[in-house]
Amino acid sequence: MNELNIKGQKAKKSSFTLAQLSSNDKNKGLKAVADAILLNEKDIIEANKIDVSNAEKNGVKGSLVDRLTLDSNRIKSMAEGIMKIIQLDDPIGEVMWMKKRPNGLEIGKKIVPLGVIGIIYEARPNVTVDAFALCFKTGNAVILRGGKEAINSNLKIIEIIKNALISVNMPSDAVSLIEDTSRESATKMMKLNEYLDVLIPRGGAGLIQAVVNNSTVPVIETGVGNCHLYVDEYADLEMAVNILVNAKTQRPGVCNACESIVVHTDIAAKFLPTACKKLREHNVAIVGDPIAKSIVQDIEPASEEDYGKEYLDYKISIKVVNNIDEAIEHINKYNTKHSESIITENYSNARRFLNEIDAAAVYVNASTRFTDGFEFGFGAEIGISTQKLHARGPMGLKELTTSKYVIYGNGQIRE
Amino acid sequence: MNELNIKGQKAKKSSFTLAQLSSNDKNKGLKAVADAILLNEKDIIEANKIDVSNAEKNGVKGSLVDRLTLDSNRIKSMAEGIMKIIQLDDPIGEVMWMKKRPNGLEIGKKIVPLGVIGIIYEARPNVTVDAFALCFKTGNAVILRGGKEAINSNLKIIEIIKNALISVNMPSDAVSLIEDTSRESATKMMKLNEYLDVLIPRGGAGLIQAVVNNSTVPVIETGVGNCHLYVDEYADLEMAVNILVNAKTQRPGVCNACESIVVHTDIAAKFLPTACKKLREHNVAIVGDPIAKSIVQDIEPASEEDYGKEYLDYKISIKVVNNIDEAIEHINKYNTKHSESIITENYSNARRFLNEIDAAAVYVNASTRFTDGFEFGFGAEIGISTQKLHARGPMGLKELTTSKYVIYGNGQIRE
To answer: Where is the signal peptide, in residue numbers (chains A, B) (predicted)?
Structure first.
């Protein structure tokens, strides 16, 4: 039996125990883990140094090495993250509704854990702690398959979590790490239907696409965000510039950053010069269609490919449209169903945008950067779903649950 | 461009229109379709006769020919089914909650259609009408891929639906039928991620498994039900016999019928003789473990395979257990996560069964036969989900929807 099957079997078995734990017990387990992470800071940093030095040796690029690196502050915020999850309400056990049917049966819809959650992710070792804590709080077992770059950090973190759980009599099989970081182990995990109830990929577009294309386990697709800002002819232009600069530059490397401006032709000549000047102050490279170029001459031409691109960088594209219909059509064609915003003071255009744009989050007069579990008030998230099944948008604790019907009878049979 | 891509593209385009229709408009479309089906009864029966005669020529077995056959009554009930769906509340547009965040953003979670739903099904032409009506009511476009046995009936029904929609200015691309009934067309449909938001297989275990294993489109797994009745040591035995006979024999060919009895050893000698006698009066074949056989001697031995089997027939297996732990373990091992029932007067055992059995519907003192959209009060169903993602149990209109976050701001940017 291989590593995946052994760990799958243990996780499945453990999930039945986890599903029955009280919130108090689960919080006790989480607290023990948070304490242990702080207490073992040195060991984590030591293990992490091996990963960082290997990454540097292998010529991994700077931004990735930065994501991989753990220091005292980052370890503290891992522990703090757990403490925040302890504070959140436990969704498990809530009966969302119960009704009495004409035959006397009382039927209720109850929130229960999903069971075993698989997570495939890349270089960030903080995901190991986050994912465990969110799954444990919701009574799910989790099987983690992190990237090879972080394997030493991950092994140490998992060892600490397991020991902490054992110290307070919680099932240590609640979490496991696949030590085989080959491509094959990821592929096998995608077929582990016997043990996994859901698989969540966290990482770049390549990883997510590979999981969607190859997994027979149900997948929740997360992350890729080609987000637009549509500046309507009735926009407050000062607000539009403000929001644009925020949505593009406040943190360009994340999925809810703005990647493209769509502008109504009637205000393009007024809006674009100021907007482009401000973007340039933040060193944003700009590409645009011929009309945009005729207004702001020193921008580069935008290709078809540009409009479909998530730059995750200081770069943005511009598309000028004749009306809101064209704006909606353009956005629905190129977006990745993540977050889209209209800037307008017009009631009907705001309403049409909210109704007709197909995306997880649709905004009027606000930055797309708000699509986030904390900003939405969920307290924490396991990722942002860009698919429509099960969960859409930021996935908090509730999205890591399913339901079961509980039915109370007194001898009812079907006529 | 092949048939699937052409129809996929049209359905996708149509889905944007459908999502914006009012309930009144959608009900008008449904009413026109119901009327047209009744009006064109003769044409449907004529087309159906070709299918039935082909099936008989090809030696298709009697029960399948029966499912395939349409007569005046069955066509009437198709139209009645639509009329019932018209009566149901339209879930689309409901804002489940809206809250104001500290920064003044108002964030709401709104119910919207899934988009384009694909359905792969087998011989029953009534599914064509049902699936269309449920999808149309929820503002979804639907692409149907029925079995080759029903192709003539399906083509005629689709023609009637499309013409009826056109007659009341509704988009006829709301529904389409894949005319290529080869295995290849089904396989291609499973990869139609560009156009399909979800794929629902309806049919036997083989079809469902093929879709789960090969689809890159998100799937909702439906149907297979290896349902158990656990007769606890504290059962009311008269109730237990009553419920058993109902759950097994009221309609043995459906997924919520009982396939296995689990009995506490302390009441086995009292319960099994009566139970088996009653089952035999209904011509139910019985297999059991050695203890069951020692009590009711003329039953056949049950194999390991029997316990994992959905007979869909007048046959049942018996397993005797020493306690409720063994009962729960046995059921969680062999069940298909569909419907399970305990017969008991004991509070703690009832509670443990409800909590610890992993299934879509868990009953105390009632027949498993109630797991059904109508019986649960949903009014209609597209199938019974046995997976945990998105929908679990009977899938009504609500399960054919997703949500989107609508966010009202006045210039908010992220700090």
So the answer is: none
pLDDT of B151-207, one tens digit each? 999 999 999 999 999 999 999 999 999 999 999 999 999 999 999 999 999 888 888
Domain count, chain B: 2
Give how far A2 is from chain B: nearest CA, Å: 21
Q: Checking phi first, is residue A281 left (phi over 0); if not, alpha (psi -120 to 50) or beta?
A: alpha
From start to end of B16-105, where are the E strands? 95-100
Residues of B in contact with A392 (CB under 8 A): 402-405
Same-domain check for residues A211 and A308? no
Residues B235 and B332 in one domain: yes
In whole angstroms, how far apart are CA B257 and each of A318, A409, B197, B243, B286? 59, 17, 31, 11, 15
Q: What digits encode the pLDDT tens for the residues A221-250?
A: 887 899 999 999 999 999 999 999 999 999
Q: Which residue has the tokens 């401000």?
A: A278
- H helices of B215-309, in order, are 237-249, 265-281, 290-295, 304-307
How far is C-alpha B49 from the geometric centre of its chain's CA atoms? 27
Q: Is the ipTM of this complex over 0.90?
A: yes
Chain B residues in contact with A388 by the CB 8 A cut-off are: 114-115, 197-198, 218, 402
Asked if A388 lies within 8 A of B411 by C-beta distance, the reply is no
A101 close contact with B: CB closer than 8 A? yes
**Is B405 touching A (CB cutoff 8 A)?**
yes
Q: Do A413 and B246 touch (CB under 8 A)?
A: yes
Whether A375 is in a domain gets the answer: no
Domain with A17 in it: 3-220+395-408
